């Protein structure tokens, strides 16, 4: 089966590739590669420990990457298929390919929207205006993301997405994401926070709420602003 990107998903993915780092763009083309962290492994202390980050990047993310590349090698029909095309047709993929493609995309995205404490900047005026329209305030948006993340009891991700008309908070199971064609809310990812225990257990044990609340201190608003500006139709 030949996979081609759906127009909406293609638009979302192109915006992400243009706004992300070169390593993120390279990670989205077959054969897929593991993007380097854009900061030292101890840069996110005290929110994320060096041990957690090293395991998360070097073992967990790499595991998804290796599984995805094995699938590509074993199926000639997948040769040359972009990551965006896989995600846009997730409903047609087997479970291993779906999980591996989602895991590779989600983690590649996640690394870029974090930065060392005190270096991530602040929300842009355009993003802040949109947040105030859709949520009332930045604090209410952050609370909505934290509440959604805490409510999802199983593994997954919590997202802030641009739907084409507004910002919305959503969660996905396992390694699904809002670019997939069969999720509840589709949209262009602006913020993503990993809810799997491997992301936070060494520091927070089962206290996911504490992890979610602390995460904002390492949010890379400079990158988040860029993703919103490219994805949205709002005046820049």
Description of the structure:
The protein is mainly alpha-helical. It has one domain (1-28, 48-236): minor pseudopilin epsh fold (3-Layer(bab) Sandwich). The chain has helices at residues 7-19, 22-26, 50-74, 83-88, 95-112, 125-135, 138-151, 201-204, 208-215, 221-231; strands spanning 156-162, 167-173, 188-194. The chain has a 3-stranded antiparallel β-sheet with strand order 2-1-3, sandwiched between helices. The longest helix is centred in the N-terminal third of the chain and has 25 residues, at 50-74. The relative contact order is 0.18. Residues 1-24 have low confidence and may be disordered.
Give the topology.
Blueprint: H1 7-19, H2 22-26, H3 50-74, H4 83-88, H5 95-112, H6 125-135, H7 138-151, E1 156-162, E2 167-173, E3 188-194, H8 201-204, H9 208-215, H10 221-231
Antiparallel strand pairs: 1-2, 1-3
Helix pairs in contact: 1-10, 3-5, 6-7, 7-9
Keyphrases for this structure?
globular, mainly alpha, three-stranded antiparallel sheet, 236 residues, 10 helices, minor pseudopilin epsh fold, 3 strands, disordered N terminus, 49% helix
Mass-distribution shape: globular
Structural class by SSE content: mainly alpha
Number of strands: 3
The CATH topology assignment is minor pseudopilin epsh fold
The CATH class: Alpha Beta
Strand content: 5-15%
Average pLDDT score: 88
The total count of helices amounts to 10
Tell me the quaternary state: single chain
Q: What is the spatial order of strands in the main beta sheet?
A: 2-1-3
CA radius of gyration is 17 Å
